[in-house]
């Protein structure tokens, strides 16, 4: 049965939560005055979840966080606050997914203000539907003819109007405070990048449920500052994901964070966000993960898509680690790669043979196959990168107003 995705504000009075009969359980995001502080899975009995069940879940999964937030709010009430809301450009990279893009832009426009520039990068779509959706929402659109998510990000970066550039994907719905929460850590001049929290937009299919139970995107609810003194730069994949990340434009251009043949649309299949985080950490910059910057991600709906994703994630991760090892001579890449393979892939595959894994054997095996496919994929990306040079200059597809 599908799982309902719900939100609860703990600081507001509320009654029983009524849930449609087709749901037997719910993934409940717990908030305190808008801030995500934890998530808990609850059984649904007689089509409802009671306040007592919610509070027990909050105490069990986020008790210390709730107490800390209450104390923090009491302190803030006694100190005059000047919110940091600088101008920013939000880049949405997309290809042939007009329906997803429309939903994403609706959420972005609702969360934006007059200081927000929204830019859609059409990454070699097969028709003009992307441009039409962007125009309907009154946002700018440029076309990047070279396929590849990283090339689309590089195009967005070059065409951004502001120093702070936030990136998200077309299969995402942003929370109302996502824009402001992503910008807030940049008030610290030492912060070069930010990553936000990703939660499932829906859990309606077997594939989506399997992905969540296998780990999905990391669900952390504490702010963490990452730098090379705290972690191996090669382990940058644990910071966050490209569906919710941001960088200072000057830093990203200087370090050429996205000028590489890697991620979706290339032989590498993924990994461009990890490599950007790596390059920033390696250069001595700090990256902040903040759970207050929340995005709802529509995970793959079919089992076939899930299998391709498991394979693609492995190919991308190990292509990224090969870049760290070969191009930057970083021995930390060997440590991270071996640790992840022996500590995750192999045990999970063994558990699948014993019937103890959340994922059936074919999906665990797809992830392992991706590891061994990475060297050939890496060579292909390097040849394509050398042959293509810099991406060709984008042409304006739609000139809408900023949102």
The first-level CATH class of the largest domain is given as Alpha Beta
User: For the residues shown, what is the average pLDDT?
Assistant: 90
Order of H and E elements: EEEEEHEHEHEHEEHEHEEHHEHHHE
Number of strands: 15
Distance between the termini: 39 Å
Supply the CATH superfamily name of the largest domain.
Answer: Spore Coat Polysaccharide Biosynthesis Protein SpsA, Chain A
Largest sheet: 10 strands, mixed
What is the overall silhouette? globular
The assigned structural class equals: alpha/beta
In CATH, the topology of the largest domain is named Spore Coat Polysaccharide Biosynthesis Protein SpsA, Chain A
The radius of gyration is: 21 Å
| Tally of individual domains | 3
Low-pLDDT residue spans: 390-403
Helix content: 40-55%
CATH architecture of the largest domain: Alpha-Beta Complex
**Relative strand content:** 15-25%
How many DSSP helices? 11
Write the layout of secondary structure elements.
Elements: E1 3-9, E2 17-18, E3 25-32, E4 35-43, E5 48-49, H1 51-78, E6 88-94, H2 98-111, E7 116-123, H3 129-136, E8 140-144, H4 149-159, E9 164-169, E10 172-174, H5 178-183, E11 191-200, H6 206-213, E12 224-226, E13 244-248, H7 249-255, H8 272-282, E14 286-297, H9 303-328, H10 332-353, H11 361-388, E15 395-398
Helix pairs in contact: 2-3, 8-9, 9-10, 9-11, 10-11
